[in-house]
Design a protein that fits this description.
With about 375 residues, the chain is an all-alpha fold. The chain has 2 domains: about 170 residues, no CATH class; about 200 residues, no CATH class. It is built from 16 helices and no strands. It is globular, with a radius of gyration of 22 Å.
């Protein structure tokens, strides 16, 4: 989605309105292709993968029931994401946000009814939740599509998406995939880091793992704040980059990322002063609260670097320069995982040593991207 938004923003900034109109078809082709691939994988490989994760018996059956239905609608999920990205790339972030909120509010009661049933009807279980998700996503996609092709689209976006008479071009696919593939690799790196660090924490027992789960909720809650600022930066930087105004692109990136640094950092610093109070909101067990407090005190003060790095990642999407964010993600993974292993195995620092490695990883991530932009700001190639 970010790749689609950034490609459109650069096209509009450069005044390439024919490319902007054609990008819709290219995005839809990619959505159908990737969606169909995920559906095929879910129907063939996913059951084996779930077994490797430890799924057996009734749990495995429920997972497959959900997976078969949800991934069966993967094309709609991709189309919905790309339609929203087109609107964001055109400078209209409010409309897809409103549609998403309505879809989410609709999903919750619908999922409850379809999964758990009502009155004498016992519902469809996990498959019901998947049906509710695909149904609301389909509704969202239809609303976004209608908005994109409405008469107001020209006024809202400055162009009207076009499907008929558009020739598929390798160049436009390359613009989207050049950013999208690198961004996806960065996401994989981030998820791999989280999985490895969770494994290290889990080696200290169930209470440590539960405490970490309580503490890391704060990071998850702050993610949408960085996402909101970051998606705005994707468009602002993309338009400036398309117009070859790299000074403005860099200024926009710094302005947005420093706002995220301050906002997310202030929340992290505040909660770090009251770790037991925060942890007590979600847990009552003393060992769990102690583990959560250890995480909060050690890692939360470094959330500012998480906000800085993540928003600059989005800005880099707009600039079409994703090498540095990917390298920063790899550097974070190495700092956190290797540092965590050394803290436990070589220095005997225990659980707090793992948390310290997480904090160092966040600092490395933010400083890596920010340092690169500071000393080697984006310029025309």
């Amino acid at each position: 989605g970010g790749a689609v938004a950034s490609s459109l923003a650069r096209a509009l900034g450069a005044g390439r309105h024919d490319d902007a109109r054609a990008l819709m078809l290219h995005a839809m082709v990619l959505a159908v292709g990737f969606g169909a691939a995920f559906s095929l994988l879910a129907w063939t490989v996913a059951p084996t993968f779930y077994r490797l994760l430890g799924g057996t018996g009734a749990a495995l059956e429920r997972a497959i029931a959900f997976s078969d239905v949800w991934y069966g609608g993967a094309i709609v999920v991709w189309l919905n994401a790309f339609f929203a990205a087109i609107l964001r790339g055109g400078g209209d972030a409010a409309t897809p946000a409103r549609v998403l909120v309505v879809a989410s509010l609709t999903y919750v009661p619908l999922a409850g009814v379809l999964a758990l049933g009502i009155d004498t009807w016992h519902g469809l279980g996990m498959a019901g939740m998947a049906i509710a998700s695909i149904a609301t996503t389909t509704g969202s996609a239809l609303v976004l599509a209608r908005l994109l092709w409405s008469p107001r689209s020209q006024r809202r976006l400055g162009f009207t998406p076009q499907l008929a008479g558009v020739a598929l071009q390798r160049r436009l696919f390359g613009e989207i995939l050049g950013v999208g593939i690198m961004g996806s690799l960065g996401t994989i790196t981030s998820n791999a880091t989280a999985m490895i660090m969770t494994g290290l924490v889990g080696s200290f027992g169930a209470a440590a793992l539960a405490g970490y789960g309580v503490g890391v909720r704060l990071e998850f809650m702050l993610g949408p704040l960085a996402f909101g600022i970051g998606t705005g930066l994707t468009t602002l930087v993309g338009v400036a980059a398309g117009a070859n105004d790299w000074n403005r692109a860099v200024r926009a990136a710094w302005f947005g990322s420093l706002i995220a640094f301050g906002l997310i950092g202030s929340i992290g610093w505040t909660v770090a002063l009251l770790p037991e109070t925060y942890s007590g909101l979600f847990a009552s067990d003393r060992e769990v609260i102690a583990a959560s407090a250890g995480y909060i005190v050690t890692v939360a003060p470094f959330y500012c670097f998480f906000g800085l790095g993540l928003t600059l990642n989005f800005a880099s999407q707009g600039a079409g320069r994703m090498n540095v964010p990917l390298l920063a993600g790899v550097a974070r993974m190495l700092a956190a995982t290797v540092g965590g292993w050394l803290a436990v195995e070589k220095f005997g620092l225990g659980l707090n040593g793992v948390f310290a490695a997480m904090a160092v990883g966040m600092a490395v991530y933010g400083c890596f991207i920010a340092g690169s932009l500071l000393f080697r700001p984006w310029r025309s190639r």
